[in-house]
Amino acid sequence: MVVGELAHERDVVIIGAGPGGYHAAIRAAQLGLTVTLVEKEELGGVCLNKGCIPSKVFAHAAQSMTSVQHMNDMGIEWAHVAFHPGKLQQYKTKVMSQLRQGVEALCKANKIEVMKGTAFFLAENRIGVEKGDAFDVYRFRYAMIATGASLVSPASIHVDHKRVLNAYSIYGLEELPEHLVVYGSDYIALEVATSFRAFGVNVSLILEADDFAFDSSINRELQRLLKKMKVKVYKNSRLIKAANDGEQVTVSLSVKEQETVTIEGSHLFVSCRLQANIEELGIERLDLERTEEGFIRVDAQSRTTLPHIFAVGDVTGGPALAVKAIKQGKVAAETMAGKQSEADTTFLPTIVHSIPPIASVGLTEEEAKEQYKDVRIGQFPLTGNGYASIIGQKDGFIKVISDADSEMVLGVHMMGAGTIELISSGVIGLEMVGREEDWKFPLYPHPSINEGLLEAVEALGAEAIHLPPLKQKGAVSS
């Protein structure tokens, strides 16, 4: 085909079928737009095939392993408990396949043209798609870049995906490591460390910073629980080099810039920075503004500097979270259809499927004290929650932060069973600018972990029923 001789006409062409891309495609189709969705690998993108879903399969299996003792306490006993990584890989593959089939069926039901191929811009209104020996040209009203980002390893580390692993390969292991060294302080590193420890793997965790980037109360509880789990933690540590001889990995660290420590492990996991996937897009033909880090700059509607071209997800920088990509994708599709829509990540929740899980939204205690004259802190331990006792998962707490003058809730931080589902209540409450009385007025189901949120809010004013008076006296902070 001669470029420009014949072009397929579409309202929307989307490059990339990860969470942002396929949500945008379906939403645009719902609004009556004709859509072509191009993906060079698998529907669902990195999230479904390499990241979110595989990691949560492992996290769920790890959490199930930790519940064995509780099952025995309830009289449900097994003569022998064994873990087979190969069978977990089969289960992971089945789950991923089912989810991909679901996405395929939804695209078909919404009359979305799905193409497997490599797409790139030919001009500001045309995209070419290569499918093997075939080549098609699409003329569009709107285009969306949803190509995500790739992992970039630290300069001193070679990831071979056998002994030295990253977030895409760690969950492909068919055999458990003897000693896993985890280098990173993000949520992925924490999930890896706690999941593999639950499987019985010896784990060493290396943090470059003083601590994780959570609220200080979560960091303190994490320190206690990691020690309880016998995870060796090295803080303020910089990786100097990692030697991989094919049998083991030897890691050299500079700890607090004072001493050098050597750790020998069977495997090394490395958290990596992200680099926008834009090299093959032909965007040099377009006048698109990029950030200093090389990501595509967008506004609250996910428009680029060309108003008819949008970008969503990891390719736009910021937190690399599927929830952000999904919201951006829907907002972009609605904007294309002429609707008033906006993506605001002020109250973007952070969740970690660690053991126990972590969920957080809004200001930390430290941030609140910097921004407000007086703040109040209410914290309720799950040891005081009846349902946590029933399910045998009493580690953790729920913490609520408010402005003492207006009683407006500023942040919610949780750690423990059920908190990942419960954090949505925190997001909604913050979005609605709820004050303490707004959070206390509704009825919370009993027995449930939800009651811990109520008691944390009540603790702001020393009203929590299941906290002794002495502990509640410290609820007010300035």
Structure, explained:
With 478 residues, this protein is α/β, with parallel strands linked by helices. It is globular, with a radius of gyration of 24 Å. The longest helix has 25 residues, at 85-109. The protein has helices at 19-30, 45-49, 52-66, 68-73, 85-109, 187-198, 216-228, 322-336, 365-371, 386-391, 419-431, 436-440, 450-459, 469-472; strands spanning 8-15, 35-39, 113-116, 118-123, 126-131, 134-145, 149-152, 164-165, 179-183, 202-206, 232-234, 237-244, 249-255, 259-265, 267-270, 273-276, 309-311, 350-352, 358-362, 375-381, 397-403, 409-415, 476-477. Helix 3 (52-66) crosses helix 5. It contains 14 helices and 23 strands.
Write the layout of secondary structure elements.
Blueprint: E1 8-15, H1 19-30, E2 35-39, H2 45-49, H3 52-66, H4 68-73, H5 85-109, E3 113-116, E4 118-123, E5 126-131, E6 134-145, E7 149-152, E8 164-165, E9 179-183, H6 187-198, E10 202-206, H7 216-228, E11 232-234, E12 237-244, E13 249-255, E14 259-265, E15 267-270, E16 273-276, E17 309-311, H8 322-336, E18 350-352, E19 358-362, H9 365-371, E20 375-381, H10 386-391, E21 397-403, E22 409-415, H11 419-431, H12 436-440, H13 450-459, H14 469-472, E23 476-477
Parallel strand pairs: 1-2, 1-6, 2-3, 6-17, 8-15, 9-10, 9-15, 10-11
Antiparallel strand pairs: 4-5, 5-6, 7-16, 12-13, 13-14, 18-19, 19-22, 20-21, 20-23, 21-22
Helix pairs in contact: 1-8, 3-5, 3-6
